[in-house]
Amino acid sequence: MNDTPGWASPGSAPSDGQNGQEPTPSGPAQPTDRPASPESTGEPGQPGPAPSGPGPKWSKEQPPPAQWPSPGGGPQGAPPQTPPPPPGPGWGGQPPAGPGGYAGYGGGYGPGPGGHPGWGGGWGGPPPAAKPGVIPLRPLGVGEILDGAVSTMRTHWRTVLGISLAVAVLTQILVILLQGLVLDDSASTDVLNDPSATAGELSRAMGDTLLNSGVVLLITLLGTIVATALLTTVTSRAVLGKSVTTAEAWRDARPQLLKLFGLTFLLPLIAVAIAAVGILPGVLVGLAGGGDGAVALGALGGLAATVVAVWMMIRFSLASPALMLEKQSVWKSLSRSAKLVRGSWWRVFGIQLLATIIANIVASIIVIPFAFLASALSGDGIGSLLESGTGDLGWTFLIVSGIGSVIGSMLTFPITAGVTVLLYIDQRIRREALDLDLARATGLQDHGSGTPGPTPGS
């Protein structure tokens, strides 16, 4: 499979005649080898040869009007042939067969001769698209994108779950060690829950809590980047019906990892910059003594900045697969994502939101029971977890809750990464006919002649 974006478009059909036929300006093709007419054969009972001079010349002996042969070519003097009766009003009538055995293009209701359906309005529709891998090679519906992500995990479970499990285990080990040895935020939690704490103590406690959360988020983000890079390669090969090992996925993804790190850190910086621009007028008015007006202006600016940031994140949401599969730079991948999402923002937003909700539901079903179990085994009971929201960050709590996080991440990584890759492929199929190149990569030479259009309701 060629990973460059400039793949060739399908070729056009030849314009000259086929099968020994000569096209005419206003009618169907006529055969070049016509049978000899009766005038040229000199058969008994037929007029002699026509003059060969220029211009049309009529024979002096014409048959009476009642003896003209019918258009069907019956013998002279025979009764005219009666045309066949039209088909009845039933829905099962067969359309006349065209060249090559295909049903007529005018509106056959059932399959034509040779099992080929009529294209003009047949109830059977065009033939189904080829499906060499986890998705059919045509524009996809929402359910097909979600099903393709799950099918990738189910079909190539050894590679997919192996990658997800390895990344999740390494990430959680780092998080547990940092939280247990370095990031002890129990003092900050006590200060935040103390009603008599001073403003300085509250500020320091909030700063420590944000720092600890930021470090954990950074480690989790790094693990997500690695998992996304590897699973992007696996999903792209699964579309072609090809399997890939973990070592092969790592070899293919390793040259782009640094660029993927830069892209992943650039997107939050863009969101933060947009938020800062939105709340800046409120902050300036507040410094000038604006009072309540500054608060309202800051809230309005923050709301507008949130809308713009969400719009930008969805616009650049396909940059990661563009960077990995097309071997693009960071800025080129952002440009490619913006081009692919243009005109389909709401569709991309809805599919990404649905995939995020499904992944969070799956993670919550697994993580929450482990959190309650960890709180119960740590000695403080479930009531402590419900009151503080964190529980005692002892080693028992960290290890048990970390096991739940590993299982949850192992199942959610393939869903989020797979949906993003398949959504990128779907947008390229719709805009750039990528399905033709994918079909050629799998050896399907005739794909595209009868491929249906976009899936209804997609």
From TrEMBL:
Listed Gly residues bias regions: 90-109
Residue ranges, compositional bias (Polar residues): 15-29
Domain DUF7847 stretches: 175-424
Pfam families: DUF7847
Compositional bias segments (type: Pro residues): 77-89
Coiled coil ranges: none
Transmembrane parts of this sequence: 160-182, 215-240, 260-288, 294-314, 345-373, 393-425
Residue ranges, annotated region (Disordered): 1-109
Keyword entries, A-Z: Membrane, Transmembrane, Transmembrane helix
Name of protein: Glycerophosphoryl diester phosphodiesterase membrane domain-containing protein
Lineage per the UniProt record: Bacteria, Bacillati, Actinomycetota, Actinomycetes, Kitasatosporales
